Amino acid sequence: MITCLAAAAAIWIFGAGRFRERILIWLDAFGLSAYAVVGAAKALSLGFAPLVAVIMGVLTATFGGVIRDVLDHQPSVLLKREVYVTAAVSGAAVFVILKLLGIASMLAGLAGFAIALALRSAAIIFSLSLPSFNGGAKDAPPPV
Fold first, then answer.
1. Comparing C-alpha atoms, which of 111, 102, 103 is closest to residue 37?
2. What sections of 46-134 are H helices per DSSP?
3. Going by C-beta distance under 8 Å and a sequence separation of 6 or more, which residues neighbour residue 36?
4. Region 75-79 average pLDDT
5. Do 121 and 33 meet the contact criterion of CB atoms below 8 Å apart?
6. Which end of the chain is more exposed for a tag (fewer CB within 10 A), N or C?
C-alpha cells in the first residue's frame, strides 16, 4: 500500500510527463512481490489449502497490474510474454512452502518477497521474457 501511495504522490507532484515509465515498472515490481506474499498469507490465515493460498497470492499480486493496464488503455501485462505471473507464483509458493515447514511468517514473507522481486528484477534488467508457443509448427506464419 505504501508503494502505491508513493507512486500516486510522485505522479501527482511531478506530473506524468516527468515521472518516467521505468520508475513505475520498478514500483510495480515491488508491489507485485509484496502482494504475492500478502495474498498467500491471508489465504493461509483463513485456513485455505496451500495450493489455493498460492493461487490467491498470484491473483492478489497480478490484479493490480491488470487494473493499471485497463485504466491506461494498454494491453494487459498478462497477455505479454513478460516474467510477471511467474515471479508472483514463485514468491507465493516460496512463502507457502516455508510456512508449511514451520518457518516464522516474517522470514517466510521476506524470502517469498525476495524471490519474486529477484525474478521480476532480472526480467526488467535483462529484458527476459517467456518463450512463445507457435503450435509446434516450425515455419508457422505470423499472427494476423
1. 111
2. 50-71, 85-100, 105-126
3. 57, 58, 60, 61, 87, 88, 89, 91, 92, 95, 112, 113, 116
4. 83
5. no
6. C
Q: Hunting for cell 516455508 — which residue is that?
A: 98
pLDDT digits (tens, 9 = 90+) for 8-57: 777 777 666 655 677 778 889 999 999 999 999 999 999 999 999 999 99
Q: Are 124 and 29 in contact (CB under 8 A)?
A: yes
> What does the pLDDT look like over 5-15, one tens digit per residue?
777 777 777 66
Q: Answer for the pair 66, 121: CB distance below 8 angstroms, yes or no.
A: no
Which grid coordinates belong to 99? 510456512
Q: Classify 139 as helix, strand or coil.
A: coil
Cα 24 to Cα 35: distance, rounded to the nearest angstrom: 16
